[in-house]
Amino acid sequence: MDHPSTPSSTLPKRVAIITGGSSGLGREFALQISKKQVADEIWLVARKKEALEEVIGQLDTPGRAVEADLTSPQDIQAIADLLSEEQPKVTFLVNAAGFGKFGDWQTISDAAIDSMIDLNCRGLVDMTRTCLPYMERGGRIIQVASAAAFVPLPHMNVYAATKAFVLRYSRALRWELHGTGITVTALCPTWVKTGFEKVARASGGGHDVRHLLGAQEPASVVRAALCANDAHFAVACASIQSLALRMIGKVVPNCVTMAGWEVIRKL
């Protein structure tokens, strides 16, 4: 007896969603994920549509530019509405949107502080919660944190605190998703050669951190993150320096690590 096959057109579209996809690590994640053939379409989320479309033109997988400000509840709701309308299978979620500022509590503006917390923390959580209902066994989540999550960093205090939040949130979410087949990895690199430095220095204390020592190329960081996620690692350090900082943060008192950071940031 012949058994009718299910037309491929009835299968849900596989979608990879990458925030911060117009530049930096988000752009590099898009380029590398597009080669993995894990999605039928890549949705790139950022505020600048033209920049997103430029990245889409470089992908091996069809892409969609989703213009959104993740600090806006209305824009988050628009993404939720789009998912509800299209009912895709989200195979990959990469939360790469975020920014930092150099300076102390007096030199970083209130607006910058609020935006940092809103984007790095609330925006990441909102996107994760929005996408999770469309993920199933085999789904992958990479949350871009930072090696700054491992220790408190004066003159980057809010940024480091937001990344500590991302790390803790990601690890707890991973535990909650145990048994679902959805893998969550927190990416914690040290400095990466992206547009981060230019934004970080645009504050009253922009030169409180003098040099970004040992900065890595985005391509190597993303490769490490994808390999770690494939291996179901909870944390991807992506460099020897980050791994060392992770170990130091576990055993060395914070007052000692902060004193060491005070020396390093002035080099």
Structure description:
There is one protein chain. α1 (about 25-35) crosses α7, α3 (about 75-85) packs parallel to α4 and α4 (about 110-130) runs parallel beside α5. The chain has helices at about 25-35, 50-55, 75-85, 110-130, 155-175, 195-200, 220-230, 240-250, 255-265, and strands spanning about 15-20, 40-45, 65, 90-95, 140-145, 185, 235. α4 (about 110-130) links the parallel β4 and β5 (about 140-145). It contains nine helices and seven strands; from the N terminus they run βαβαβαβαβαβααβαα. With about 270 residues, the chain is an alpha/beta fold. It has a seven-stranded parallel sheet, with helices on both faces.
Major sheet size, sense and barrel closure: 7 strands, parallel
Strand order of the largest sheet: 3-2-1-4-5-6-7
CATH fold descriptor? Rossmann fold
Cα radius of gyration in angstroms:
19 Å
Name some characteristics of this structure:
Rossmann fold, seven-stranded parallel β-sheet, 13% strand, globular, disordered N terminus
Give a concise summary.
This protein is α/β, with parallel strands linked by helices and 267 residues long. 44% of the residues lie in helices and 13% in strands.
Task: Note the topology.
Layout: E1 14-19, H1 24-34, E2 41-46, H2 49-56, E3 63-67, H3 73-86, E4 89-95, H4 110-131, E5 140-144, H5 157-176, E6 183-187, H6 196-200, H7 218-230, E7 235-236, H8 240-251, H9 254-265
Parallel strand pairs: 1-2, 1-4, 2-3, 4-5, 5-6, 6-7
